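so my prof wants the structure for this chain in the tokens format not the other one, which i didnt know existed until like an hour ago. anyway here's the sequence
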Amino acid sequence: METTRERAKLINRAKRIHGQVESVERSLIENRDCADVLMLLAAVRGGVDGLMAEVLEDHIRLHLVGPKATALTPELGEELIDLVRAYMK
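here's what i got, hopefully its the right format
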């Protein structure tokens, strides 16, 4: 991660996902309607996908196209990020 602030942002997203997973667990314990559980699971999935995309973007920018990296040009890095974003939608 690039900065403490960005890391804190990612940690907060992970905590939010954790809360959503706990909500799924409670719903299963309470034998709630399948549709409700599925909606909660969709929210978890979206949260995890978003967090994964952000960490992957950081990795590409910091380690593949950063000042010390030689694997990709900045243009190819941005193209890779766009492809990853499109794939994860």
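also thought this was worth mentioning. Residues 2 and 88 are 22 Å apart (CA to CA).
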